[in-house]
Amino acid sequence: MEKAWWKEAEVYQIYPRSFCDQNGDGIGDLPGILTKLDYLKDLGVDVLWLSPVYQSPNDDNGYDISDYKKIMEEFGSLEDWDQLLKQTHARGMRLIMDLVVNHTSDEHPWFIESQKSRDNPYRDYYIWRDSVNGGPPNNWESIFSGSAWQYDPPTDQYYLHLFSKKQPDLNWSNPKVREEIYNLMEFWFARGIDGFRIDVMNMYAKDMSFPNAPVKNDRPFQKGFKYHVNLPKNHEYLHEMYQRVLSRYDCMTVGEASFTSPQEGIKYTDPSRQELNMIIQFEHMGIDTEGEDKYISGAYRPLDLKRALTRWQYALNGKGWNCNYLSNHDQPRQVSRFGDDKNYRYESACMLGALTHTLQGTPFIYQGEELGMTNIKMERFEDFRDVELLNWLRVHSKLPGFDLHKALERANYISRDHARTPMQWTDSENAGFTSGTPWIKLNPNYRQINAREQLQNPHSVLSFYKKLIALRKNSETLIYGEFEDLLPDHEDIYYYKRALNGEEIYIILNLTDKLIKMDPYPPKGKVLLSNYCGKPIWEEGQLHPFEAQIFRKE
Ligand code: TEU
Ligand code: CA
């Protein structure tokens, strides 16, 4: 298998708004991140991924950009950013930026122009269509609820927005738009970045005849995925982006691809197709959602997690490359979702870390994961900040049979805001995140769960992560080895092998809070890492709740 630095790298995602606030306005900022670079280096991080830091009205916390070449004022200045990059590089780490170009903000000058008249030179930068039968051009539903079309009175047409109405979709079929995008990418490469995480990169191409989506329920709007996700044209666009820009840099590219099968995933990441290095796939993020709407219901079963991950391991092996993650800024906290944040927080947080660090692929850590940070309990909807959830609530609370209590309970399980509560640095006021008032509620458990305590504690989640990261970094087998699922149908245990050049590393994970007998016993070996200090599995014959053992066969 072809070696590459981005395959070996440890990636750490920073959501700047919630990471560290230096000037006391309650909002994380670039100077704040700068003060934490040593912490990240010490953890073993190689690549920082910054969620968007560009100028934005913050309808979706920076994923709605009004100027791609400016830094959001709340976060600092371009000089602060240059300093951050310089200091990141000085520590031997790399920096990748979030590229959000499926849509812009409706406050971007291109859109403001586009809105002015039907013959404005920027009109075709976006997607405008006439009303059909007095309503929107078709029945597509926005991923953020309601119609995907917004009526704009001055020109009596609708514009398309797959996300919020303040995120109008760019028209990728217009070559001028693509030129603008390549140009802004060059701007950041010229400043020295090491790559991009590419937002919603599988929805650039749309079926430009905008057919109605198949009707699956009695709701007014329907999912139009068939007509705007993973279209053949989308691959052409990415290939062009590769040829025009990416191929000229030794960079890392990771595309975000929801609603994507492994077969599609290969197309994006197969090096011979010249598109991207890897994708953020979503299959394992959908296992605890019943139906298509994650805010309604669903339950987690470990076997579903195993099956989804195993499928991607086999599918991409030797063809593409996986990105292994269980959390990001769009997902709840992994220890609350797939572990037990009450009775086995340490054990399950470590076990889940062991999982993402021993599969084939590049591991991505989301800020606070390395501390085992948990979901927050919100008492009221007013405490949530996320536009996706609040839009959902606005639309759904009007539907017959809506149950506010049930909805709040589900939001407390699945909301994106769980990932966005401030990073817990210390046990002092506001968790050391800010000297002011945090923009979103702080999880009150920062008194127990914080970096300061964990840095001193050899039995902390943080200390375990450090060992885990070092273990992977020094093991070609863990990075490049073949994956084999040894117990694919077991309900509770994930047991797999990684093999390279005759070396075999076994990983055995108890995904549950039960004590589980192991039958047959695994082979004898040398334990490389475990979150328990008892006997190795081949002597003990059973696994403790959320136990993880990584061992080399002798
Ligand atoms: O996410 C796109 C996306 O697919 C998510 O909206 C995801 O489907 C959803 O959160 C799961 O319910 C990206 C960004 O990661 C996200 O933060 C942005 O809100 C979105 O794009 C729009 O830019
Ligand atoms: Ca600030």
UniProtKB/TrEMBL annotation:
One of its GO terms (molecular function) is alpha-amylase activity. It holds the Pfam family Alpha-amylase. Residues 13-420 form the Glycosyl hydrolase family 13 catalytic domain. The keyword Nucleotide-binding does not apply. GO terms for biological process: oligosaccharide catabolic process. Keywords: Glycosidase, Hydrolase. Signal peptide: none annotated. The keyword RNA-binding does not apply. Gene3D superfamilies: Glycosidases (3.20.20.80), Golgi alpha-mannosidase II (2.60.40.1180), Oligo-1,6-glucosidase, Domain 2 (3.90.400.10). PANTHER family: ALPHA-AMYLASE FAMILY MEMBER, OLIGO-1,6-GLUCOSIDASE 1. Belongs to the glycosyl hydrolase 13 family. This is Alpha-glucosidase. It comes from Youxingia wuxianensis.
